[in-house]
């Protein structure tokens, strides 16, 4: 199960985080990102299947039009690296540290890992 992917939030995530089949939680940090040159589509205000289908359709069209973005290297020592943490808490802490260092990390990924931490106790 993934907590977020590089494609999350219309390709605005620097991390791909998932529960690893070999154990623990793996965080892959991107080496480069899409830097928006034009506004990125926004997710629907209310959760509905139709709203999310429209959102993903808009995101797909946005990414296909290369005038909307340019490549930007991720300027961080962890760029291009992967990490495996033994627990959801350690992974959430890593994501908080990466976010504090300026990487784009979706808050919901941290929140979901924190929720798992409660289940681990």
Write structural notes for this entry.
It is built from four helices and six strands, in the order βαβββαββαα. It has helices at 8-11, 49-64, 88-100, 107-120, and strands at residues 2-4, 15-19, 25-29, 32-36, 69-73, 82-85. The chain has 121 residues and is an alpha+beta fold. The protein has a domain at 2-34 and 71-120. Strands 1-2-3-6 form a four-stranded antiparallel sheet. 39% of the residues lie in helices and 22% in strands. The model has no long low-confidence stretch (mean pLDDT 93).
Which sheet architecture does the biggest sheet show? Answer: 4 strands, antiparallel
Oligomer status: single chain
Rounded average pLDDT? 93
Helix proportion of residues, in percent?
25-40%
Strand order of the largest sheet: 1-2-3-6
Beta-strand proportion: 15-25%
pLDDT under 50 segments (min length 5)? none
Spatial shape: globular
Order of helices and strands: EHEEEHEEHH
| Derived structural class | alpha+beta
Gap from first CA to last CA: 20 Å
Layout of secondary structure:
Layout: E1 2-4, H1 8-11, E2 15-19, E3 25-29, E4 32-36, H2 49-64, E5 69-73, E6 82-85, H3 88-100, H4 107-120
Antiparallel strand pairs: 1-2, 2-3, 3-6, 4-5
Helix pairs in contact: 3-4
């Amino acid at each position: 199960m993934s907590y977020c992917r590089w494609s999350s939030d219309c390709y605005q995530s620097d991390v791909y985080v998932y529960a690893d089949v070999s154990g623990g939680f793996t965080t892959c940090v991107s080496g480069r990102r899409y830097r928006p040159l034009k506004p990125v589509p926004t997710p629907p205000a209310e959760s509905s299947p139709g709203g999310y289908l429209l959102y993903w359709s808009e995101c797909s069209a946005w990414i296909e039009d290369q005038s909307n973005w340019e490549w930007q290297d991720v300027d961080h020592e962890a760029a291009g690296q992967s990490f495996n943490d033994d627990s959801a808490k350690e992974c959430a802490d890593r994501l908080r540290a990466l976010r504090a260092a300026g990487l784009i990390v979706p808050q919901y990924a941290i929140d979901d890992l924190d929720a798992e931490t409660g289940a681990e106790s």
